[in-house]
Specification:
12 helices, endopeptidase activity, mainly alpha
């Protein structure tokens, strides 16, 4: 009798796991399709002469990405805040999160630089497409994108993957999902690196706010750098995209920079592990303290 009960419980557990995996995959596919369809639809409209500010179509695309996750969660009758991990964090955790963001810089920059040996810098290519107000564009890149993508990937995919796999497997798979969601090789490379760190940061704090803060800082920094470069080259009568592409042909320079960043990244990886433990300790997260 006990053996039968155990077998039924085990069978039910496997069924629940299978359903969870199917739900994650199906929802993620809808996220990617929404991104592809909406991005191409707006590109087609703009190419045909209709002027649409970046902050408008950028917001619509990001909302399209996150809506499948929200709809799935609502249909399951789950709490949005609990399911996605919207738990308050301490001010000390915020400070450690900023430190973690700084330490992550060499790792994702290394991936960005090395990827440009093979493909162009997508951020620079996209700079000319950011029509409308500078503040509106920044708001979409730094706030809307960070919030929507973190809910979709860390809040939905990673949190659910943790229930059916180990922490590091869930972090790795969700990182790949995050990379693929960007739909280009350049951003995919460094997004995967960041996605893995974001997932571990959320595990350490027990909250999605850590990755949202990191994502916002990184996107803000990247946006400001590209805008400054755009203004500087424009005032000098130089095309930023052409200049970046010309520099990219100097493969040896990119390879050297990438290797230097890789060496620095090894040291930063050890420091990142220490900071993750500090974040876990700040939030009294004993499970994460033991892991890190």
């Amino acid at each position: 009798m006990n053996a039968e009960v155990f077998q039924m419980a085990d069978k039910e557990k496997k069924t629940d796991k299978r359903r969870t995996i199917i739900g994650i995959v199906a929802t993620y596919v809808l996220m990617v399709l929404a991104n592809i369809i909406l991005s191409n639809a707006f590109s087609y409209i703009i190419i045909n002469g209709v002027s649409i500010p970046f902050y408008v179509y950028g917001t619509v695309v990001e909302l399209g990405i996150v809506m499948p996750a929200i709809i799935y969660t609502v249909l399951k009758g789950e709490s949005i805040t609990e399911s996605f991990g919207f738990r308050r964090i301490r001010f000390k955790t915020v400070l450690w999160t900023i430190v973690l963001t700084i330490l992550s810089f060499p790792l994702y920059t290394c991936a960005n630089v090395l990827s440009q040996i093979f493909v162009p810098n997508t951020a620079i290519e996209s700079a000319s497409e950011m029509s409308g107000s500078i503040f509106g564009s920044w708001f979409v890149v730094a706030i809307v994108a960070s919030l929507c993508e973190e809910i979709a990937i860390r809040g939905f995919c990673f949190n659910r993957l943790k229930k059916v796999s180990s922490l590091f497997v869930a972090a790795a798979i969700s990182a790949i999902m995050f990379g693929v969601l960007h739909l280009n090789i350049n951003q995919m490379c460094y997004a995967m690196v960041l996605g893995f760190i974001f997932a571990l940061a959320n595990f350490a704090s027990g909250s999605i706010w850590t990755s949202i803060i990191m994502h916002t800082i990184i996107n803000s920094f990247g946006y400001v750098v590209v805008m400054i470069a755009e203004l500087a080259t424009a005032s000098a009568g130089i095309n930023l995209e052409e200049t970046a592409e010309l520099q990219r042909t100097q493969t040896s320079s990119f390879l050297t920079t990438g290797l230097v960043l890789f060496v620095i990244s090894i040291g930063c990886a050890f420091l990142i592990k220490m900071v993750l433990k500090k974040i876990a300790a700040s939030e009294n997260n004993q499970e994460a303290i033991e892991v890190f």
